[in-house]
Amino acid sequence: MIRTYLVYLPLLFLVAACQQQQVQKPVFDRSPEEHLDPQRKEAPYPQIEIPDGVDMESARWKGIDLTPTAPVIPLSALEEQKTFRLQPGYRMDPILAEPHIQEPAAIQFDGNGRMYVLELRTYMQDIDATGELMPEGRISRWEDTDDDGIYETGVVFLDSLVFPRFVVPFGPNTILSMESNEDHVYKFTDTNGDGKADKKELFATGLGRSGNVEHQTSFLTWTMDNWMYSTYNSRRIRWTPEGVIQEPTGNPYGQWGVTQDNYGQVWFQDGAGGVPQNFNFPIVYGNFRIPGQFQDGFREPFSLVKLADFEPGMRETKPDGSLNNVTGAAGNDVFRGDRLPKELVNQYFYGEPVGRIVRQVRSDKTEGLTYIQNAYRDQETEFIQSTDPLFRPVDMATAPDGTLYIVDMYRGIIQEGNWTQKGSYLRTKIQQYQMDDVVGNGRIWRLSHEEHPRSTEKPRMFEESTEELLQHLSHPNGWWRDKAQQLLILRQDRSVVPKLAEMAQNHESELARLHAFWTLEGLGALKAGLVRAWMADSNPTFRIHGMRAGETLYKYGDKSLEADYKKGISDPDPQVAVQALLSAHILDLEGVEELMQNAVNTNPAKGIQTVAQQVLERRAEERERAATKYTVVEGALFDQGKSIFDSYCATCHGVKGLGTPTGADGGELIAPGFSGSPRVQGHPEYAVKTLLHGLTGAIEGKEYEGVMIAMGENTDEWIASVLSYIRNDFGNQASFVSPEYVAQIRAATGDREGNYSYDALVAEIPKQLFPKDNWEVSASSTALQGVGSTRDPSYAFGFKGWKTEEEQKEGMWFQLVLPQPQKLTEIQFDAGKEQYPGSYSVEVSTNGTDWTEVARGTGEAGSNSLRWEESRPVNQLRLLVKEPRNQVWAMKNVKLYAR
């Protein structure tokens, strides 16, 4: 019965969503129980069988109760509301629930207060994760149009997604998102105002991961420093008027949750680890070991659910059957609103859905370090508990109304299929309580307090002028401050710079000054004088932020702040001194290691000792790694290219590859930056032709002061080295450029006269064809892809990859049929250490019968590519094994290029 319900429900939802003006209130007293098989409620219940090969005396199974047991029955939202155990004065109220939404995993609000809901509608729809990567995920958008606190009006903003990873509102009617097993973040826009995205643009690349859906990128979060952070990625990205740039960072170790506090410190939420991560220092400075940062007892949850239904098994079970060690944390928020008691402001909260709790974290700061504890550890309880086994808090967010919203996935299974396989402890417990049937639900709750009514102030930032947005920078609710700062930067309206500067210097609110200061930085209008004044301010918070923001100016070439950073290392406040050390490290100031060693010798504060000693260790390790990171040939190209860049290119393109500021107010760039540039990291032909022949005029509509003159008088090795360097520094990751390739392009364009214009150059460059649903991909042999997956050669175009079922044979093929003919010119793919063909050919066709060989190559581990001169448009391409190896044939990240 439940399967029929799930098929029928989306149809009802689509009808309701299309009728956006027709208000239909969510019904919170309707129980999902009515959709379950009635027999599951009736005794006698089925006997639970012990899986084959299970040793009942082992740690995971010892003491397990397999008595036939009544199934867990889902409750209505109003019934579930009664199961919460809250601290005095608090209450939880549903504001949105099934059937309007299903499997909600995260929420975000746009500038008009509309709530976007990430719905993972394929997550664990049965115990084997069947169909988990089917394109049935969605992002819906909801409004409370009558101000009663219930979100009753919704649209499906974006549909047919493959397990989407996040939703990021990005200006009026626009969001950012990406799908599982993909490397690209896209910008989706509703251009005609009907509430549905109809325009898709590439926003950034290089943020993807493959594998288990719980182990991929999530929560791309814009923070106070104007950068965006996500889980798993050791890099951060930033939107600028010239494009999206990237920088390397430490490993965030997060799994599901990225948030920030009132002072811009980013917190990452570990999943299986069950604890917050990287909350001591900004992740851009790398990872640091902080002994004791989790105080004694932090890992112990206090749960009211006693089913022992968690993956670690009986070894992590209290005698009463509840969880004894946090194991499945998800979702986080530093509460920054103004409609809950003040003691909650700037406190960190996260969900532990395996324990069915929401935890409040207390932060204790000493000697420049932060140590955390469960705020209710002494009372042996949690901020929020529930007796309902289906309460699954997976996200939370400070809302525009000043309260805290909690996303409850409300389901039976909360672990992915890799942990529920046949014979597993967890599968046995799930089936014992028949929890695998409870799917397709989801609730969003508002946490409020009896002494603090929610705000009814309605955000209307998209309709407000730039000057009107300024007033929100001093709003008592941090959500308003964040959103106003983001929109001011996206608008790039520099007419408000004088007022921002006045606010940053003189506003009575410390937080308003911080947001004004960073808004200036985001507009490219921050001056060294103001930075220096903040670095010398009597308030240590401003000294810290002066140093952090000053790094931007230093990276763009203003070295006048170096003395200020070095002076800051002796600051009497240990947190300020720690920041000075971190800045000196990231900026690689002259004599930085001597500065670190001197700090170790003279300042006993724990924060100083931790940072200085570990930076010294890291730098020594980096010197060792640098010797083996690249092959001998690559290393020589990289080193020579760095020398050339520092001597010639940095003058216009910036010492850190960000571009050199120019103009009366420093708001323009002499030349475009290289960091994160899709042009620089894209097909190498673009950069080679630019250096050989020069480039003039606007680039993607943006004019620059400088002109890229032709560098063709330099050798092929000179050009190859500098391009290899800029494609692999400044946060970039791309293939190296060989002198032989430069020679080929030089010969092919030898009769060209004059510089390229951008449009003319782009017209010549091979463009990557991104996979579409109407591509037909097939292969002569394909292996099974794992639990819940089907045989699908199209996985070759993503991180998941494709491989043959059997060892290579001559004539084995991989084939692609395009919907329209293209002038194909190049194919690239990644191969494993052993699973590459001995030799292979590329053939093209227009009818699938008559094939023409256009290229032949020898396979190798790592990156493979073949180029050929296109002669005619074709719609079919295949790769054939010519000389097989005694291995299966495997490919991933296949890229196809056409002119």
Automatic annotation (TrEMBL):
Which Pfam families does this entry report, sorted A to Z?
Answer: Cytochrom_C, DUF7133, F5_F8_type_C
Looking at the record, the residues that make up the Cytochrome c domain are 636-730
Q: Please, which domain of life does this record's source organism belong to?
A: Bacteria
Please identify the protein, giving its name as recorded. Answer: Cytochrome c, mono-and diheme variants
Task: Specify whether Glycosyltransferase is a keyword of the entry.
Answer: no
- Please name the InterPro entries in this protein's record: 6-blade_b-propeller_TolB-like, ARM-like, ARM-type_fold, Cyt_c-like_dom, Cyt_c-like_dom_sf, DUF7133, FA58C, Galactose-bd-like_sf
Write the record's keywords in alphabetical order, separated by commas. Answer: Heme, Iron, Metal-binding
Where is the F5/8 type C domain positioned along the sequence? 802-899
Gene Ontology MF term list: electron transfer activity; heme binding; metal ion binding
Whether Heme counts among this entry's keywords is: yes
